[in-house]
Amino acid sequence: MAGRLRGVKGTRDLLPEEAGVWAAVEAVARRVFTDYGYGEIRTPLLEDTELFVRGVGETTDIVGKEMYTFDDKKGRSLTLRPESTAPVVRSFIQQGLESRPLPQRLFYIGPHFRYERPQKGRYRQFHQIGAELIGDPGPWGDAELLAMLVRFLGELGYEELVVLLNTVGDDASRAAYRETLRAFLEPVRDRLGEDSRRRLETNPLRILDSKSPAERELLSDAPRLVDSLSPASREHFDGLRGALERLGLAYRLEPRLVRGLDYYSHGVFEIVSEALGAQDAIVGGGRYDGLMRQLGGPDLPATGFAIGEDRLIEALPEASPCRARPAAPVAVLAAGAVAPLAALELAELLRGAGVAATADLGGRSVRAALKRADRSGTRFVVLLGDDELAAGQATLRDLAAGDQTTLGRDQLAARIKEAS
Ligand code: HAM
After folding, report:
1. pLDDT tens-digit profile, the chain (420 residues)
2. What is the CATH number of domain 16-170+230-322?
3. Stated pTM of the model
4. For ligand 1, what atom is nearest to the CA of residue 84?
5. How far does the centroid of ligand 1 lie from the alpha carbon of residue 187, in Å?
6. Which end of the chain has the lower number of beta carbons within 10 A, N or C?
């Protein structure tokens, strides 16, 4: 016998019960984001590798070790998108969106790919719900974006999620801080792990994100980025904090929060959930004023976030409205010589009148079909026999009430709607 094939490691199948929850979550995202003036953008899953190398940064984990990169048949290096900020900016430039009124508000929902070690909440194909506000210098736009994010999470039933907030300042502030941090770590470099020693040369800010307890201990006395901020960066950050307070949005300052992508400037944030156990973030985002220019476009500031949809749904509160199951369709069964075509025909009639219905396709006893209908969770079963068909009637059985009536076919839809 041929061996059974399995899905690729780190990918998942979402079966109807679960996919229904996903669709409900996505519907809430579309509604809330649309209410804030955001329009959907769909960019390809495949991009030139160079987009991420230049956009996300060569020394980041994403570009260094996590990308699904391959050569196509003509030898072009392509990559399955590991994130969508760089693709959205690429599209913005390519499609000339700067000629439209600014700022532009764009959102996206879809799969992304990173070659990471799979575990709960971490997959190789994962999904993001993201939003980008392009052409606004902030900080008010950042506050509006966070308000939208918090409203969305609230509508899903999330409570008490705290936004962890930091600033990575402008280019000059970061350059100054990089040197300060290097000077602090250089004397203790022997106590750093291999990764961090390498980062000391390439990207010292990333060391702040270390998960190693020994390194975290070392870093507890490290100088803080907020103390290296230029006056303009400080003003930007104070503005953002003031706006969040004005809008009643709770946040916690997290001076060591640095993001894993190189394009950030000014305000950055993450949201973590205790429900996930690990300290993995459900949401990550921040401002990226230099990215558009770096990718060869106009010098436009921007800010945004991406929610990890897999994690969002894994931690979804029990009481979330997105968990509500839609009512199962009415089950239509025919018996005798008229089966199964009479059932097919009547189910079509019901659907035409706005009642969801499934037809029993025959091949089993009425008893078995009834049992299956009951198990499907439906409330109503419509039964058709030879006599009923001849008389233009059908029997409506209400499984919840435990009774049944025979009535004209043309009254069925109205009766079901009335009773549901
Ligand atoms: P990120 O922090 O790399 O940011 O990813 C955002 C979110 O995607 C994470 O917080 C996490 O929930 C989810 N995520 C990432 N990797 C995985 C994985 N392997 N499995 C499951 N979930 C994952 C970005 O991607 C930026 N583009 C966000 C952004 C938009 N910044 C500005 N605009």
Report:
1. 688 999 999 999 999 999 999 999 999 999 999 999 999 999 999 999 999 999 999 989 999 999 999 999 999 999 999 999 999 999 999 999 999 999 999 999 999 999 999 998 999 999 999 999 999 999 999 999 999 999 999 999 998 788 999 999 999 999 999 999 999 999 999 999 998 999 999 889 989 888 889 999 999 999 999 899 999 999 999 999 999 999 999 999 999 899 989 999 999 999 998 777 656 899 999 999 999 999 999 999 999 999 999 999 999 999 999 999 989 999 999 998 888 999 999 999 999 999 999 999 988 898 999 999 999 999 999 999 999 999 999 999 999 999 999 999 999 999 999 998
2. 3.30.930.10
3. 0.94
4. 27
5. 34
6. N
The per-residue b/e assignment along 233-258, b for 16 or more CB within 10 angstroms, e otherwise, is: beebbebbbebbeeeebebeebebbb
Cα of 112 from ligand 1 centre, angstroms: 9
Using the mean position of ligand 1's atoms as its centre, give its distance from the Cα of residue 67 in Å.
Answer: 13
β-pairing, 281-287 with 302-308? antiparallel
The domains of the chain are located at 16-170+230-322, 330-419
The residue to which tokens 């199951």 are assigned: 325
Task: Say which CATH superfamily domain 330-419 falls into.
Answer: Anticodon-binding domain (3.40.50.800)
Which protein residue's CA is at the shortest distance from atom 2 of ligand 1?
284
Residue 305 CB less than 6 A away from ligand 1: yes
393 C-beta closer than 6 A to ligand 1: no
- Say if residues 281 and 211 touch (Cβ distance below 8 Å): no
Beta-strand pair 104-113/39-40: parallel
Query: Looking at ligand 1, which atom is closest to the CA of residue 123?
Result: 20
CA dihedral angle for residue 384, residue 388, residue 390, residue 393, rounded to 10 degrees? -100
DSSP letters, 208-277, are GG---HHHHHHHTTSPPGGGG--HHHHHHHHHHHHHHHHTT--EEE-TT---SSTT-EEEEEEEE-GGGS
| Residues 130/108, Cβ–Cβ less than 8 Å | yes
